[in-house]
Backbone:
């Protein structure tokens, strides 16, 4: 019986494998016939599937997986859902690309602005130094003179002190002490020089503003009229001021452009966020597409099996291609194989059931024989007991008779 059970397992495994192959062939056949029908529908060679298949209104109204029209419409529904999902994904990705493009433009413009800011910073430093040292701009430099003198005096003092410390000769400990003082003084001098640079840079920046207010000439103008700019006496200052005006104009244009771009970025990001997290939405749509595609495969399998049924086969055979006919032959062969395997399974199950019954009969017969042996043993014991009782009764009679004689 164990051999039969092993055979049954092998037969069932073979049937499952064959069914899997059959499903794949049904899927290929269903997909192929769908393509043929859709191509003919587009070429106006056929009308709606419900009319060409000769289905009744009752057939069409029921959601029957054995109804070709229902399966045809179901497939088209899933195809449309996939197309809609893919379009939604494209829209989300387009929005994200647009946002990314804005980010890239902003990054590029900010880099351009940083470069211009560096140029303006260097230019204002040079311009401030020239203007503050030029006696022709007292009306502008008067407000800066006191602070300029204070910083310059501090720098002069620190430079002299540093020179004295470096040139001082004395004992080892004195030189060591002066070395420490020298380091401190160098740090202070460095800070003072940096403060002077900041002061000159600020002065240069304010000088450009000063010229804009004083001059009636537009910043793009190449006119260098001395009565308006006051720079004719110093061509270097005049040249730096002209470059400064151009750079500041570019700086303003970039600032305005960046302001617009950042507003556009904010609006785009808010519009995207209002629809939900983009990554989650794309993931959900992709999962929906996966489910729709799996449903289409299921519809193809069912459609491939459905059109081979007796009530539909005659019509759909007319839509078979040579490849479809080959699939049909393979499917028929697998159908036959499955039926033969099912017969073998049924036969094997019956054989196993018979073996089970025979096993039970053998068990019962063995139990009967055991009971019969026990009965035989019990009857033998009873006979021995009955013989003992008879002998005992005879002994009692004899003993009673002897007792009577004695009395």
Residues:
């Amino acid at each position: 019986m164990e051999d039969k059970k092993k055979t049954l397992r092998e037969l069932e495994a073979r049937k499952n494998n064959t069914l899997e192959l059959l499903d794949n062939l049904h899927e290929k056949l269903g997909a192929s016939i769908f393509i043929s029908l859709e191509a003919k529908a587009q070429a106006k060679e056929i009308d709606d599937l419900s009319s060409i298949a000769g289905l009744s209104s009752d057939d069409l109204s029921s959601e029957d997986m054995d109804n070709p029209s229902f399966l045809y419409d179901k497939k088209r529904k899933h195809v449309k859902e996939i197309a809609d999902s893919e379009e939604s994904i494209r829209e989300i990705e387009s929005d994200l690309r647009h946002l990314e493009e804005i980010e890239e433009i902003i990054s590029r413009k900010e880099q351009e602005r940083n470069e211009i800011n560096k140029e303006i910073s260097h230019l204002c430093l040079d311009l401030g130094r020239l203007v503050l040292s030029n006696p022709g701009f007292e009306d502008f430099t008067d407000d800066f003179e006191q602070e300029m003198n204070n910083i310059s005096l501090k720098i002069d003092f620190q430079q002299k002190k540093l020179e004295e410390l470096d040139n001082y000769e004395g004992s080892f400990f004195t030189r060591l002490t002066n070395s420490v003082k020298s380091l401190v003084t160098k740090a202070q001098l460095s800070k003072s020089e940096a403060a002077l640079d900041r002061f000159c840079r600020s002065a240069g920046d304010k000088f450009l503003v000063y010229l804009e207010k004083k001059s009636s000439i537009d910043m793009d103008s190449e006119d260098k009229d001395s009565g308006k700019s006051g720079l004719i006496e110093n061509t270097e200052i005049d040249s730096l001021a002209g470059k400064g005006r151009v750079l500041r104009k570019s700086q303003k244009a970039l600032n305005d452009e960046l302001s617009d771009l950042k507003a556009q970025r904010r609006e785009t990001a808010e519009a995207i966020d209002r629809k939900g997290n983009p990554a989650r939405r794309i993931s959900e749509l992709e999962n929906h597409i996966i489910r729709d595609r799996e449903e289409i495969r299921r519809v193809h399998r069912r459609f491939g099996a459905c059109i081979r049924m007796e009530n539909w086969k005659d019509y759909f055979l007319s839509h078979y291609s040579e490849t479809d006919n080959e699939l049909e032959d393979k499917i028929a062969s697998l159908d036959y194989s499955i039926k033969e395997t099912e017969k073998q399974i049924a036969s094997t199950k019956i054989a196993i059931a018979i073996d089970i019954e025979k096993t039970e009969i053998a068990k019962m017969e063995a139990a009967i024989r055991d009971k019969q042996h026990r009965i035989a043993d019990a009857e033998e014991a009873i006979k021995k007991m009955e013989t003992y009782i008879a002998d005992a009764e005879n002994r009692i009679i004899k003993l009673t008779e002897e007792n009577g004689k004695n009395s």
